[in-house]
Amino acid sequence: MHQRCCIIGGGGYFGQHVAREMQRDGYHTVLLDLAFVDVDRDGFILDERKTTRIRGSLLDEALLEKALKKSSVCIHIAAYGMSGAPAMDPGKIFEINVHGTMQAMTACARFNVRKFVLASSVGVVFTNEELHNSTEDHPKPDNYYSHYSESKNDAEEFVLKANGAVVQSCALRFRGIFGPGEPRSTNRAAEAIAQGLYFAKFEKSRDALTQFSGVDNSAKAMMLAARALFTKPEVVGGQAYTIVDGGEPVKSWDFWNPLIETLGQKPPKVRIPYFLVIWGVYLNEIFYFFTKLMAPPLNQLEVNLIAVTNTYSIEKARRDLGYDPQNNHDLTEVCKYYSRYFLTHPVQVFDMPKIFTHLALFLLSILIAVVLYYTF
């Protein structure tokens, strides 16, 4: 009989990749989520004999109990508010990301689920200042401008402090998970490139460097963390680990160049001053918060992750988890996927209504930013 692994948020793109890794490691996976997506990727399949799906929210205590019972480990991926309109809903962000995490881990203790792995974010240490080869003990910021980052920090601190005799826990910090068909960052980038909207760039750090988290490396790291909580809980319990691709960091704007070339576009040449972008986004966020009209295409956290150098050390994960990332920052499969995808899902190149709408709002935000800059 297989051990059971409950994956909260297991119905999404990343969650199902984690499920596949856990199944390869011998687990029956119980996936709890509000919705279950079809992972459109060549060769991707879950073993249905080792898969149980439960549709619903982690805030539903009865469903949470159903998912956790008889499980030996819980992997908590579910989160809310990284991008788009949800990023401007602090109430729901903290309800799901903080209260939901606390409820899940408390339930683990009640139902004798002894191991707990949390999906966290590099946003718990990164704001708008450069990070170079940052380690997990880097000081946390005094203040967060991102509700999402603050909520992930609160959840991570709760999980790591709760590590003990009843439940052993750890957290993995990711940065921009990417992969073929990945809906949050990869699809958005591919659609912007295909529409010809990827024509301008902005930087606070000259030639800003970063590292992304490949989906296969990230899913494997989740499995390794769960395994390590069984084999060496005294080492891994209560610890945070940064999980990004290995090798040399990449330039934020150059990372997508292979996909840009594949889709017949050109790399961005126009440079927009960083302060205009960040002020424009800030004012756009305020405008949306009060009017609920036109959520900004990027929020402040997303702008800074692109515009400011942020690189991370993975040596702790290598040492404690045996993390050994492969095919680092490799877009070969991503390029093949989207070259086929846009043959059957054509987009309107230079979607003029969308461009003019966002441009008008952005120019208005810039105008207000300039007035404020020279007034104060």
TrEMBL record:
The keyword Oxidoreductase applies. GO terms for biological process: steroid biosynthetic process. Pfam families: 3Beta_HSD. The chain crosses the membrane at residues 272-290, 355-374. InterPro entries: 3Beta_OHSteriod_DH/Estase, Lipid_A_modif_metabolic_enz, NAD(P)-bd_dom_sf. The keyword Oxidoreductase applies. Keywords: Membrane, Oxidoreductase, Transmembrane, Transmembrane helix. Gene3D superfamilies: NAD(P)-binding Rossmann-like Domain. One of its GO terms (molecular function) is oxidoreductase activity, acting on the CH-OH group of donors, NAD or NADP as acceptor. This is 3-beta hydroxysteroid dehydrogenase/isomerase domain-containing protein. It comes from Pristionchus fissidentatus. The lineage of its organism: Eukaryota, Metazoa, Ecdysozoa, Nematoda, Chromadorea.
